[in-house]
Design goal:
The protein has 305 residues and is an alpha+beta fold. It has one domain. It contains six helices and twelve strands. Helix 6 links the parallel strand 7 and strand 8.
């Protein structure tokens, strides 16, 4: 029978053991259900900054007479959005004596806390895009959820993805869905976007299930059919725990249509060092990334009431 001896772990914090620590962190991270891969487009950054710029598309074709030249259109540059890789890190120290005396339970718990902490700061930052979307101005000078998004063609027409504040109900859900379906493209023309996810905080998880998973209208005593039954998906687990508001709700389209972005420059990694004077091992964890949005379309929000 194999026995794990204390002498086998004298280099637990050294270079040769870093892959084992990294494996512990990765295994722990994978056990948490992240909403970022579900709601955000994930891209890598080749430098410390990345920029997206929207462009106006072409207007609808117009009727052209025989032997009449076609009218060429100008594609206009829109609003740039810059992502900057921010470094996040943490670490802890443990005495050589603690390592020598086999305090591996503490070491394992502390190492797992790296992955839990890094997971949480990412989820909080991603959820903040929704939470702050009613008040914080974005790349186009208005908040993410606004009824006055200036269109890229500069024609004075504005886009709208902000629902009238109301409690979540079948009626307010329908109103937000209709707003979603009336999205305008860069030239003020309708685009056929359909919501894919109803994004809810924990406080609305049960109501959300009643609205989209009931075959009959839960707000009608006459067993009227529920016209929104099974027309949209809830998030895994039915809610996103990191949303701050208890009343706001959101609609998000397919990732191919929206520009919610999670930009990764450096995946989570570990490093270690040894302080000879203090006889203490040091373990550190780092990651670099940014999160945001490059376009307001295919996402709508209602602040609730």
């Amino acid at each position: 029978m194999a026995t794990n001896l204390r002498s086998n772990f004298v280099d637990f914090f050294g270079t040769s053991k870093l892959p084992e620590l990294q494996a512990v962190i990765e295994a722990t991270t994978e056990s948490y259900p992240s909403m970022i891969p579900i709601l955000f487009n994930e891209e890598g950054m080749t430098t410390d900054i990345a920029q997206h710029t929207t462009m106006s598309g072409l207007r609808n074709p117009i009727q052209v007479g025989e032997n009449v030249p076609v009218q060429f259109q100008t594609i206009k540059s829109g609003y740039p959005k810059t992502y900057t890789a921010t470094k996040w890190g943490t670490g802890y120290r443990i005495s050589k004596e603690a390592v020598d005396d086999g305090k591996f339970g503490f070491i394992e718990r502390a190492t797992k806390s790296f992955s839990k902490g890094m997971f949480e700061v990412k989820e909080i930052a991603a959820a903040d895009i929704f939470d702050n979307g009613f008040t914080t101005n974005g790349y186009d000078g208005v908040p993410l959820f606004s009824n006055s998004h200036p269109l890229e063609n500069g024609g004075g027409v504005v886009g709208d993805n902000l629902g009238t504040a109301a409690e979540l109900s079948i009626t307010s859900y329908r109103d937000l869905r209709n707003l979603f379906q009336n999205t305008l493209n860069e030239d003020g023309q309708f685009v056929k976007y359909m919501p894919k996810f109803l994004v809810l905080p924990q406080a609305l998880q049960d109501l959300g299930q009643e609205i989209v998973k009931s075959q009959y209208n839960p707000e009608d005593a006459n067993n009227a059919i529920n016209t929104v039954y099974d027309t949209i998906a809830l998030l895994p687990g039915n809610y996103w725990q990191y949303l701050d508001s208890d009343t706001a709700f959101f609609l998000v389209g397919d990732k191919a249509e929206h520009w919610l972005m999670f930009m990764s420059r450096e995946a989570m990694s570990t490093d270690s060092d040894y302080d000879k004077e203090a006889r203490a091992w040091e373990l550190m964890c780092f990651s670099r990334w940014d999160v945001g949005y490059s376009n307001w379309r295919a996402i709508c929000g209602n602040a609730g009431a």
